[in-house]
Amino acid sequence: MKLLEERIKKDGIVLPGNVLKVDSFLNHQIDPELSKAMGEEFARLFGDAGIDRVLTVEASGIAIGVMTALTLHVPLVFARKKKSALINEPVYTHRVFSYTKKEYADILVLQKFLPAGENVLIIDDFLANGEAALGLAKLVEEAGSKVAGIGIAIEKAFQPGHQRLLDKGYHLEALASIASLEGGTIRFTAED
Ligand code: 5GP
């Protein structure tokens, strides 16, 4: 997606450890117009899949997730990373390792917000090792639903997550696909 690539080129900052910082439009400050365009693009890419629900994980997936869900006219549910005192109903949960925080978190969703027998579209901001996306997919499958697709705003295609998701047979779409961050230079893959 040209608009996203251009924004990454303009505002993205490469940090040590192959981390791309995009806090001026995706991870802290949010650009609503760009989020809307990303949501519409996800809705176009997965529009034929009969999506019943969008699932993401807090916090950075929520803006793009809600724009996708709005365009598809379906609900958005986000997995929480911390159990709150208000959660006293049955949950689906899975332990995932955070790429940026370097620690485990138990992501969870109330079972009533992931009914069985649905086509669920997973949306997230980044794909690195695939931990977050695979953890969300586990929740969907445990609920007795189908992962209809995985939409990622920015994938780092040189890291293992891309291949791990394809190996599991998931339909993966990334709006921006980064081939390398070597030397602090952002290079996109040739496909788009
Ligand atoms: P994975 O679970 O695929 O290893 O990593 C994806 C998750 O880690 C995303 O939800 C995102 O929060 C975070 N992440 C991974 N790589 C990056 C990165 O380069 N930049 C930012 N801002 N977040 C990242």
From TrEMBL:
<comment type="function">
    <text>Converts the preformed base xanthine, a product of nucleic acid breakdown, to xanthosine 5'-monophosphate (XMP), so it can be reused for RNA or DNA synthesis.</text>
</comment>
<dbReference type="GO" id="GO:0032265">
    <property type="term" value="P:XMP salvage"/>
</dbReference>
<comment type="subunit">
    <text>Homodimer.</text>
</comment>
<dbReference type="InterPro" id="IPR050118">
    <property type="entry name" value="Pur/Pyrimidine_PRTase"/>
</dbReference>
<dbReference type="GO" id="GO:0005737">
    <property type="term" value="C:cytoplasm"/>
</dbReference>
<dbReference type="GO" id="GO:0046110">
    <property type="term" value="P:xanthine metabolic process"/>
</dbReference>
<comment type="similarity">
    <text>Belongs to the purine/pyrimidine phosphoribosyltransferase family. Xpt subfamily.</text>
</comment>
<keyword id="KW-0328">Glycosyltransferase</keyword>
<dbReference type="Pfam" id="PF00156">
    <property type="entry name" value="Pribosyltran"/>
</dbReference>
<keyword id="KW-0808">Transferase</keyword>
<dbReference type="InterPro" id="IPR010079">
    <property type="entry name" value="Xanthine_PRibTrfase"/>
</dbReference>
<feature type="binding site">
    <location>
        <position position="27"/>
    </location>
    <ligand>
        <name>xanthine</name>
    </ligand>
</feature>
<feature type="domain" description="Phosphoribosyltransferase">
    <location>
        <begin position="43"/>
        <end position="162"/>
    </location>
</feature>
<keyword id="KW-0660">Purine salvage</keyword>
<comment type="pathway">
    <text>Purine metabolism; XMP biosynthesis via salvage pathway; XMP from xanthine: step 1/1.</text>
</comment>
<feature type="binding site">
    <location>
        <position position="156"/>
    </location>
    <ligand>
        <name>xanthine</name>
    </ligand>
</feature>
<keyword id="KW-0963">Cytoplasm</keyword>
<dbReference type="GO" id="GO:0006166">
    <property type="term" value="P:purine ribonucleoside salvage"/>
</dbReference>
<dbReference type="InterPro" id="IPR029057">
    <property type="entry name" value="PRTase-like"/>
</dbReference>
<feature type="binding site">
    <location>
        <position position="20"/>
    </location>
    <ligand>
        <name>xanthine</name>
    </ligand>
</feature>
<dbReference type="GO" id="GO:0000310">
    <property type="term" value="F:xanthine phosphoribosyltransferase activity"/>
</dbReference>
<protein>
    <recommendedName>
        <fullName>Xanthine phosphoribosyltransferase</fullName>
        <ecNumber>2.4.2.22</ecNumber>
    </recommendedName>
</protein>
<dbReference type="InterPro" id="IPR000836">
    <property type="entry name" value="PRTase_dom"/>
</dbReference>
<feature type="binding site">
    <location>
        <begin position="128"/>
        <end position="132"/>
    </location>
    <ligand>
        <name>5-phospho-alpha-D-ribose 1-diphosphate</name>
    </ligand>
</feature>
